[in-house]
Design a protein that fits this description.
Largest sheet: 7 strands, antiparallel
Radius of gyration: 17 Å
CATH topology: L-fuculose-1-phosphate Aldolase
Oligomer: single chain
CATH class: Alpha Beta
Number of strands: 7
Strand order of the largest sheet: 4-3-2-1-5-7-6
Strand content: 5-15%
Number of helices: 7
CATH superfamily: Class II aldolase/adducin N-terminal domain
Shape: globular
Distance between the termini: 39 Å
Number of domains: 1
Helix content: 40-55%
CATH architecture: 3-Layer(aba) Sandwich
């Protein structure tokens, strides 16, 4: 089996995504690339995370052609592969249906960054793309354009996409953006508008998170 460790990591984060309530059943999709070989491990289409195994994770090339696997890869494969072709800094892509972010997606609104952890992970306000049918090259181009050189974007009337150096940081970004979306909605329920963290501070915190936030021996 090709890329067994990467397949296992993709499976682990897919299950974590379901456990954390960021997706249900077969919702969402996750991938990671092995830059040495150029091969991508991606979740299969319409497969339930609860019963999925590492063998079910599909290996595709950077054009989306199946290299190894018994299932079709996610219909969002064109989105994942486009990110890897155009963003050499990206090592993992996660699409989820985080419930509070989905509220912003339904309203076609960006997610303000109102929490320090979200500023660290996302680096600034999370833009929202207009609604477009997913699973197409047009949709992939749209989302890449909206996310730009950032690492998170709202899919209009759909959900959230994040990318990053690896699965760990990409997943942390998804959780942090969902936390910020939830905090915004809670603040509004309290009758006050949430206060976004200034863009320059977001950028400073994000750079620190990317370069310095990691386990350090004492």
């Amino acid at each position: 089996m090709r890329l067994p460790e990467l397949r296992a990591q993709v499976l682990a984060y897919a299950r974590q995504m379901a456990s954390d309530g960021l997706a249900h059943g077969a919702q969402g999709n996750i991938s990671a690339i092995d830059r040495a070989s150029g091969l991508i491990a991606v979740t299969p289409s319409a497969a339930d995370y609860a019963t999925m195994t590492a063998d079910d994770i599909v290996i595709v090339d950077r054009e989306g052609a199946i290299v190894e696997g018994r299932w079709k890869p996610t219909v969002e494969t064109p989105l994942h592969t486009l990110f890897y072709r155009r963003r050499p800094d990206v090592g993992a892509v996660i699409h989820c249906h985080a419930p509070y972010v989905s509220g912003f997606a339904a309203a076609l609104r960006p997610v303000p960054i109102v929490l320090i952890e979200a500023a660290c992970a996302a680096g600034g306000e999370v833009p929202c793309a207009p609604m477009l049918r997913s699973g197409t090259t047009e949709f992939a181009e749209l989302m890449l354009g909206v996310i730009g050189q950032g690492n998170a974007a709202v899919m209009g009337q759909h959900g959230l996409i994040v990318c990053g150096q690896d699965l760990k940081r990409s997943y942390a970004t998804a959780v942090a953006v969902e936390d910020s979306a939830r905090a915004c909605l809670f603040a509004r329920q309290l009758g006050t508008e949430p206060v976004p963290i200034p863009p320059e501070l977001c950028a400073e915190l994000h750079q620190w998170w990317l370069t310095s936030y990691r386990p350090t021996a004492v």
